[in-house]
């Protein structure tokens, strides 16, 4: 099992499915999972989809990135329902996930990853 992975949550299924295509180019060994859209694949989020993506991620520990508003709320609900250790980041979505993926791939420890994510925090 991989030690640290990434989950991506977006209101738009195509965004949630597209970002991993970018990340796999720089982090082919990092477990990536995503959840996008509602259960009917409309614009929105689904706590069930998010929980499923967390559980399907091959990593023991997951770094979570999201796009806007209710994505965070549903992520927080899903985190409460899983046994996995999930870290939720309020960073620029693509830039935060990209930074984390490259650093995980390079074997950088989590505390250093978090230091490098700090400037990308959305206030």
TrEMBL record:
Superkingdom, natural source: Bacteria
Chain ranges of the PTS EIIA type-4 domain: 3-123
CC terms in the record's Gene Ontology section: membrane
Keywords: Transferase
Documented EC number(s): 2.7.1.121
Key word Transferase present: yes
GO biological process: glycerol catabolic process; phosphoenolpyruvate-dependent sugar phosphotransferase system
Catalytic activity: dihydroxyacetone + phosphoenolpyruvate = dihydroxyacetone phosphate + pyruvate
GO molecular function, one term: phosphoenolpyruvate-glycerone phosphotransferase activity
Short name of one Pfam family: EIIA-man
Enzyme class: transferase
Subunit description: Homodimer. The dihydroxyacetone kinase complex is composed of a homodimer of DhaM, a homodimer of DhaK and the subunit DhaL.
Function noted in UniProt: Component of the dihydroxyacetone kinase complex, which is responsible for the phosphoenolpyruvate (PEP)-dependent phosphorylation of dihydroxyacetone. DhaM serves as the phosphoryl donor. Is phosphorylated by phosphoenolpyruvate in an EI- and HPr-dependent reaction, and a phosphorelay system on histidine residues finally leads to phosphoryl transfer to DhaL and dihydroxyacetone.
Name of protein: phosphoenolpyruvate--glycerone phosphotransferase
